[in-house]
Amino acid sequence: MLELMARSGMRIGEVLKIRPKDIEGHKITLNDPKSGKDMEYAFIPQKVTGRIKDYIRATDLKPDQRLFPLTYSGARKVVKKAGEKIGIDLNPHDLRRHSATFASRSDTPIEIVSKVILRHTNLSTTQIYLGKVSNAEAIRWIENLYG
Fold first, then answer.
1. I need a labelling partner for 130 at 20 to 30 A (CA). Which of 11, 49, 118, 121 fits?
2. In b/e form, how buried is each residue of 105-140, taking b as 16+ CB within 10 angstroms?
3. What is the CATH number of domain 2-146?
């Protein structure tokens, strides 16, 4: 569940609704997403797809069963406990933010981060997620571009 949020940019509520029948290769169909659309797609790396398929087989999930039969508060507790184990205060939305920041810092075009990973309507919403750039990072990018 944690890896799925950190690698796909999905919200916790979206992850909790996923069923095996929603997964097709690298694509997960999200029914009733926060955007208000009927459905959207989230994309995941092949290695995550493989682990999910293994999990589905190991737990003998049926196509209509939820992958993670947890309540929202139960899922929040799982994320909090995982953060405590490594000494950080972690909440589910931090994993979504991580997904965007990691992609951005890996030179993924902002349009992809915004429209594909976070599925935002406006780029300005994505820019809020990515936050401020430190002076050290600004200098590193200037050197990469023009140095």
1. 49
2. eeeeeeeebbebbbbbeeeeebeebbeeeeeeeeee
3. 1.10.443.10
Calpha distance 121→133 (Å, rounded): 23
Q: In the chain, what is the greatest distance between 2 CA atoms, to the nearest angstrom?
A: 56
Quick one: average pLDDT of 118-136?
79
Per-domain residue ranges for the chain?
2-146
Q: CB of 104 within 8 A of CB of 110?
A: yes
Lowest average pLDDT, out of 77-91, 114-128, 131-145, goes to: 131-145
pLDDT in tens, 64-97: 999 999 999 999 999 999 999 999 999 999 999 8
Phi, psi torsion values for 129, nearest 5 degrees: -60, -40
Rounded to 5 degrees, what are φ and ψ at 93? Answer: -70, -25
Q: Is 99 exposed, middle or buried (0-12, 13-18, 19+ CB in 10 A)?
A: buried
Interval 28-57: pLDDT, tens: 999 988 877 889 999 999 999 999 999 999
Mean pLDDT, residues 106-125 taken together: 89
Tell me how far apart the alpha carbons of residues 115 and 9 are, in angstroms, rounded to a whole number.
11
